[in-house]
Automatic annotation (TrEMBL):
It comes from the Eukaryota. The gene is ACYP2. It catalyses: an acyl phosphate + H2O = a carboxylate + phosphate + H(+). The keyword Acetylation applies. This is acylphosphatase. Belongs to the acylphosphatase family. Residues 1-82 form the Acylphosphatase-like domain. InterPro entries: Acylphosphatase, Acylphosphatase-like_dom, Acylphosphatase-like_dom_sf, Acylphosphatase_CS. It comes from Aythya fuligula. Keywords: Acetylation, Hydrolase.
Length: 82
């Protein structure tokens, strides 16, 4: 079995871009998460999630919801949840 490693690559990209939040696998075989940071960096992360992902991943579609401006970050880093 090949490792898709989407969460690991997502965490790495988030740290490179300087956004905070989390990512985790779902029982449906998809990935969910939350990203916070300056709008330009969040948009760069959304673009990466939509078009790039991990080398072994196949991205069929992305769905971004609950987008809003916040006054302060809820997270201090980016992590993988289990």
């Amino acid at each position: 079995m090949t490792c898709v490693c989407f969460r690991m690559y997502t965490e790495e990209e988030a740290r490179k871009l300087g956004v905070v939040g989390w990512v985790k696998n779902t029982s449906q075989g998809t990935v969910t998460g939350q990203v916070q940071g300056p709008e330009d960096k969040v948009n760069a992360m959304k673009s990466w999630l939509t078009k790039v992902g991990s080398p072994s991943s196949r991205i069929d579609r992305t769905n971004f919801s609950n987008e809003k401006e916040i006054s302060k970050l809820d997270f201090s880093g980016f992590s993988t949840r289990y």
